[in-house]
Design brief:
The protein has about 200 residues and is an alpha+beta fold. The chain is about 40% helix and about 15% strand. A 3-stranded antiparallel beta sheet has the order 1-2-3, with no helix packed on it. The protein has a 3-stranded mixed beta sheet with strand order 5-4-6. The radius of gyration is 19 Å and the shape is globular.
Length: about 200
Amino acid sequence: MRCPFCQFDSTKVVDSRLTDPGDAVRRRRQCEGCGSRFTTFERAEGPMLVVRKRDGRRERFDRDKLVSGMLESTNKRPVEVSDLEALAESIMGEARQLGGEVDSSWIGERVLRGLARLDRVSALMFACIYRSFSDLSDFEAELTRLKAESLPGEEQLAITVPSDPSATIDRPPTGAPRGAEGELESVRRGHAGHP
């Protein structure tokens, strides 16, 4: 396997595991030249995956587009790209098991659930776009749903909403990671995703 960073032609596998739902092998590799790490996936060639859009169009499933959309939602959040890639692979595996053709809304719900397991703030940011929130009440309803939903797995980030909507939320010092309160205040001010 050639390194995608320096093109050195020798890499070693440092971790290998089956993806969920088990239709591919995910390998973490390290370049023996530059030391960079990257992920590869190995799977048997299956049927082409097709996405049915809301307007009735059908198009080929684009894994890169899916990962790119998730990256936007996790911008400046503590989420690893390799976790997003694994989530995309899991969604593709499920789609294959369902016959290779799925609705775009089915994909959106799987992404939302997967992001909620990784980082609830990222899930909230994804929901803003995916569910096309029209006002703050939509945002707060999704926030309430995410807080109430019990998710198995890793410890989740606590999300709190001020009881007084007009209350000023203290901002973290410059350069500090922003919690859910800072994200909520950013959306209220119309600056979601920007420091």
